Amino acid sequence: MRVRSLLLGTMGTCTLVLVVWAGFAPIAVGSRDELFEIPKGTWARRMAGEKIGVLPDRIRLTLGIRDILLLKNSDDVPQIFGPTLMMPGQSFRLPFEQASEYQFACSAHASGQMTINVDPNPTTPWARIAWRTRELLRDL
Amino acid sequence: MIERITCRPACRRERFSRRFAVTALIFLQVAVATSIPVQAAAASEAPALKAGVFSPPRQAPDFSLQGSDNNELTLSHYQGKIVLLGFGFTSCPDVCPTTLATLAQARRKLGPDAADVQVVYITVDPERDVPARMKQYLASFDPTFVGGTGTAQSLEAVRKEYGILAQKKAYGSNYTFAHSSYVYVIDRSGRLRALMPYGHAPDDYVHDLKILLQE
């Protein structure tokens, strides 16, 4: 009975500490870049009939945390990537400073458009918890 | 030992709460202390330009079109200046007039430095955008703006070199175009340095142009 109480107490404490940490600790990231890369050989594989999607239709960024779209063409040929044409080995780094929805014409997508949602910086505890939960789910 | 024997449930609860609070506080402090330096490091990597930057920058492809001033329009003619290169059409109801008004305002804000900045606007609608029409339209924003037109094939070739999309769409008995709405920033050496997406304020252009003008 005492062991059970101790166990429950420890679990409760840990959960609470985790929630408090998730809500109040500043969000720390190593880089603000959200990288999408065209791997080497993509063009050849496409020419062979393979369907390869590199960029999702919708990209979600967060101001002040991960608010720079970084596109990299590591293939051997020029490629239309996102909004622009990129040479082999070239990268394109696009920062965002306002939370909003951005639309770019993009021939690489079936819809002909790529949407980038830039969320506001999570300043409230709930927003931080939501952001961390979303990141955790994405990593999983 | 004595305490353990004499401590009642209320006392135990209080002791538990105290330990709980202390533990939570320690965890919180550790979390905050370990997070702050990393966040500061991330913030310091903010890019210098407001526009999207190409790395490494490639040489902007040259072109030869008919200018709105009835002369031949080439990109190389403007080497030594910063060129803001946009694509659109004079009948565009929203994106083009907004972009051109933004560019005109940015040039005004630059003051004398604006002499080193050239706006070149290439049409995606050669059917309607003849030189005279382009000249009149562009002059309503800024008389220094230069338009480019030509045959459908020559314009398509330029668009391909720059990765510009333009799709003709029926609009009642008329037609319109869905087209790439950004502006390329070409530096004094003729390198394609950056791409400013649609919707940026004149101050963002001024910010970037001042940096590039100092190079």
Describe the structure.
The complex is a heterodimer of chains A (140) and B (215). Chain A has 140 residues and is of the alpha/beta class. In chain A, 31% of the residues lie in helices and 29% in strands. Chain A is built from 3 helices and 8 strands; from the N terminus they run H-E-H-E-E-E-E-E-E-E-H. Chain A has a 3-stranded mixed β-sheet with strand order 1-3-6, with no helix packed on it. In chain A, a hairpin with a 7-residue loop joins strand 7 (100-105) and strand 8. In chain A, helix 1 (2-24) crosses helix 3. The radius of gyration of chain A is 20 Å and the shape is elongated. The relative contact order of chain A is 0.17. In chain B, the strands form 2 sheets. An 8-stranded mixed β-sheet of chain B has the order 1-10-9-4-5-6-2-3, with helices on both faces. In chain B, 41% of the residues lie in helices and 26% in strands. Chain B starts with a helix and ends with a helix. Chain B has helices spanning 2-6, 9-43, 95-110, 131-139, 152-162, 202-213; strands at residues 52-59, 64-67, 72-74, 82-88, 117-123, 146-149, 166-171, 174-179, 183-186, 191-196. Chain B has 2 domains: 2-43; 52-213, Glutaredoxin. Chain B contains 6 helices and 10 strands. Mean pLDDT of chain B is 87; it is low at 1-5 and 36-44. Chain B has 215 residues and is an alpha+beta fold.
Mean pLDDT of chain B: 87
Helix content of chain B: 40-55%
Low-confidence segments of chain A: none
What is the strand arrangement across the widest sheet of chain B? 1-10-9-4-5-6-2-3
Largest sheet of chain B: 8 strands, mixed
Distance between the termini of chain B: 78 Å
Beta-strand share of residues of chain B: 25-35%
Summarize the structure.
The complex is a heterodimer of chains A (about 140) and B (about 220). Chain A has three helices and eight strands, in the order αβαβββββββα. Chain A is of the alpha/beta class and about 140 residues long.
